Amino acid sequence: MHLILTKISKVLLSVFGRLQSIPHDDPDLTPEKWCMVQPCMKIRIASKEIIISQPLSSFRVYFLGFFTVGVSLYFFHIQNGENSRLWWGVSLLLWGIGTLLAGTSYQAFGYEIKCAGRQVCSWTSWWEVVYLMFQQVSMNAMLVAIAYSCTTGTFQIVLLCYALVSSLVYVIIVCIGGIVPVKSLITFEFMLWVSAPVFFFICFFNAWRYLMFRESMDLVLLGSWIILLGTNMAYWIYSKHGITKKLWAKGIWFSENDVLHVFLMFWMIYIVTVVANRIKDYTIPILQG
Q: What is the value of pTM for the model shown?
């Protein structure tokens, strides 16, 4: 397994080798300055000294990643022939793996991946590029789950085709952005914009279904989308007002990524305790009244 992972890493390094040519937002960010702008901790493994970036943040993101993978396995466990639960499991498995990839490069091993041995730190890495792919495909897998839960016939086929085509197109765009490279195509913000149509569709669709049919499944799903929307709003507000830097100036490190991961943890708890056992494949609803 270690040999396979090493080979995959070498292939990705060669494919996305030009990522280092993208200038960092802070062109003066050198390895020496890395630990001035964020907390670091040195650990020794055998004879090698490794710098861990944002230790507490790294713990949070890894915990979230493994917890999300665990929730995905729970969906597989309770699948019971339901395609909707199967695809919830697929979506959260991709989400969890993506979270672990992001935490590795954005937090824990950011210095080792983007700074060690360089004169100026890199803006991104292949870990982050692959994370973007996992994250976006995860959202489309969630759309597939909603399609099986809430639609049938031609409409369901349209949603399934959209999820497939959207995933393929986005992966191609990100590959182009990482290989050429094109910075604007491999940003977290661009990924959010691409995900937005799916998110707002399922939001309004579940709201409409609940108003029409009073299905409890639609209500709990709507609750999950509201939590997810609140999560992204909290992230944006925290980032917009530069709260990370203000707290770090006082010796407190709690970044916008920490805000995102803490809120997502509550979202995951809601998913596994409230949503999971209410998910079922589509049945013809009965109009109320």
A: 0.95
